[in-house]
Amino acid sequence: MIRIGAGTHKGLxxxxxxxxxxxxxxxxxxxxxxxAIKDKSVNAVVLDLFxxxxxxxxxxxxxxxxxxxxxDRDRLTFKTLRENVLSLNEDKNKYExxxxxxxLYLKKSKDIRYDLVFLDPPYRFTIDPDxxxxxxxxxxxxxxxxxxxxxxxxxxxxxxxxxxxYRYGQKHVAIYRKEKTA
Length: 182
Prior knowledge:
26% of the residues lie in helices and 29% in strands. By secondary structure, the chain is α/β, with parallel strands linked by helices.
């Protein structure tokens, strides 16, 4: 079980998907991430891509996000994600759930711009930089947007974004911030 660390849903336990492809972010790592991004989730439009249990997006909602888009393509994982999100008893306008591949979601949701993006693909995927570039090139990020990338390898610098990387065991977590245009 995973527990929400702060906000309106503090202490809420979430179910964990029974899937080999899913690895929930440990509570202490999630809390460190939210500490590093400070109040970025307040009134934010959030994308939780590869949502898994939904813990990152749910934590953002708990801390005041305006809306969260949850995306996962695995049916069993999505069932758990849906149960977790519905257990919040949040206004249905505060979230949307998508059972689809991330590429299809990004193409179909081209009018949405995000303030906060969580990327935590299944083990050993090397797609985070490509997704981040896509979001930048297609003007999908609001001014001062933050992207949190979790993966099993070092993150790379991406032009137009500042980056600070943290290491938690085998996991590399990068916090990218969209640079302000003058």
